[in-house]
Amino acid sequence: MGAEGPGRPPGGDTAPPGGWPADADTALTLNHSGCWDWDLDRGVLHLDGPALELFDLTAAEYDGDPAHLGSRIPAAETARLDVLIAQALRSGRERYGAYFRLRRRDGSMRWTHTQGSIQRDAGGRPYRIIGIVRDATEELSQPAERTTLDVERFRQNGVVELTTAALAHARTVREVLHALERSRGLEQLGAISVIVGMVEDGRIRLIGNSGSDHPPELVLTRIDDPLPLSEVVRTLTPRFIVSREDFAVRYPYVWPYVESVGASAAAYLPLIAQAAPIGAIGLLYRGRHPFTPEERTLLTALTSSIAQSLQRARLFEQEHELAEGLQQAMLPHSLPIVPGLRAAVRYRSARQGRDIGGDWYDVIPLPGGRVAAVVGDVQGHDTHAAAVMGQLRIVLRAYAAEGHSAATVMARASAFLNDLDTGRFATCLYAEADPASGWLRLVRAGHLTPLLRRPDGGCRPFPVMGALPLGLSAYFGKLEYPVTTMEMEPGETLVMFTDGLVEEPGTDLDDGVRALADRVRHAPPGVAAGDMEELADRLCGRSERWPGADDMALVLLHRESTAVSQPGRRLHQRVASGDPQGLAAARHMVRSAARSWRAGERADDVELVTDELATNALLHTDGDAVVTVYPLAGAEPRVRVEVTDRSSTHPQLREPADSSLSGRGLLLVDQLADVWGVESRGTGKCVWCEFGGGGGAGAGGANG
């Protein structure tokens, strides 16, 4: 743009040229520039006419698929652009720009520059990029004193950007090595093989070697060995070997290996992090390689970035191993053996995203031969979530073992979590199973519903009434947890899981649950025979597409096909204080039940012991007593009587004095019952006894 003539106002009386001012299309075309529009959701990249001309393509040759531009953009340039664009999308930037080379139809290479503006929705998700592309060959071919970009410096900067971008999201040592291999940044410098060694306990262990395998004797070496990696670690000084002669003289021990891979020059540089050597890297080259000062500076800068990434990865792995070990220590190490039920559990830590989570499982033995299964997920993915998980699991186990009902266990756990004042909540699924009857009582606190697999292989979600997550229900004063009951048939399997097992990016949670049900449905043949371990392994196998961004817990409860159903239903009779008719009804109930269940020869014993236990409960507690009688499964007829009250004090068997008028009740129970005992039941207790149908009193003896 030039200045106006003296005294002439802008525009003056001169007529403007035709088509003035030029429209955008004219300006872009005259400057060898085109426009493009990339729909990220559909994966369609539109190129206008000038852009197609720049790529030396016709409209008939290009169908909108960005992958089809690979015939024009070299693979190395494509990889670099992919990394830079992905980094821009993840970082939240609004625009980006990049120089790259493209190959014309005649095979000639031209420099090109592109710039894109990223469009995002209200949630920050990128859905579209609108940009321009222009020919930059003339710009980059100007004499050094007139150009704004030095081509060689641009190439070197591109290598640094490419490698740095590839390392930015590598979290483990293995991911760092893969990123170096995938980025191909070092290959652009002419290296044919890259060797990485890390310092471990005064030795150097090779952890990566692209191109070929090292001989076993070079995998683990001492720092004082006369080897190039050891030397640069000792001296913290790079070593550059420019020729095969130089190599053979300075490092005769490794020269045979170097020669076998076709290399004759090398650069060995220390990996330094926090002013200490953590390892070394070696780059092997074909032919004589002089290593200019600029290239040596570039390699030093690159190895500094690589060292920081490896150090960060090693710290992450150490912290992850420690956190995972602590979390595993807070999970149960063994499962109770419950006749009639098979259980299998799994926990899998996350391999992407945060390093630890709050998922847990538990299988808890309960009074009366029952068992409780639990899966849950504490909000958050950090060590605090894991700590809360450990406390919550212990509290749930304690409340359940005390004999509280399923709803009470969940309500008390919610109150406990709220009292911790951590600001966290937890979802949880609690299932109480009676293997004798097959009955399940399920409570769901904001958690995913379980799956039920039938013996014929069919699988479907089993609807369970839900309530607020633990912690939130107490905070809002809504501690009522509805209980869903079901009878699990022999051969059926209950599948309880956390969301980490069904979540995948870009898919709906319901789709993940349906996919899990499909995997259960097509389980191996051994699952039909009750092999829960095989089913658990199958369900927890990682997807190759998505190795798991969240931790997960899984519990399988299988009622064995050989399980014998309870031969009769439970009978209950509540006896109030001062209610002789209620006590008489309880005696009549247990006598009739014993006769109906082929234990008639013991009917007198059953009635007498029931009367004694119920009377003691009414005399020594403030509330009512509940008498329960039911038959036990087995080859021989057997009856169990339970008397439950609201006192937590356990009765003690002792010998009364000869002159004492009381204290002989438990002696009578001990003499008449085959076996008896006491169990905690919530805030109260249950005194139980069993009678066989074979006649005669048992040996007695407290069993609890």
TrEMBL record:
Pfam families: GAF_2, HATPase_c_2, PAS_3, SpoIIE. Residues 96-148 form the PAC domain. Signal peptide: none annotated. Its EC number is 3.1.3.16. It comes from the Bacteria. It catalyses: O-phospho-L-seryl-[protein] + H2O = L-seryl-[protein] + phosphate. Residues 1-23 are annotated as: Disordered. One of its GO terms (molecular function) is protein serine/threonine phosphatase activity. It is an enzyme of class 3 (hydrolase). Keywords: ATP-binding, Hydrolase, Kinase, Magnesium, Manganese, Metal-binding, Nucleotide-binding, Phosphoprotein, Protein phosphatase, Transferase. InterPro entries: Bact_Sigma-Reg, GAF, GAF-like_dom_sf, HATPase_C_sf, HATPase_dom, PAC, PAS, PAS-assoc_C. Primarily acts as an independent SigF regulator that is sensitive to the osmosensory signal, mediating the cross talk of PknD with the SigF regulon. Possesses both phosphatase and kinase activities. The kinase domain functions as a classic anti-sigma factor-like kinase to phosphorylate the anti-anti-sigma factor domain at the canonical regulatory site, and the phosphatase domain antagonizes this activity. This is protein-serine/threonine phosphatase. It comes from Streptomyces armeniacus.
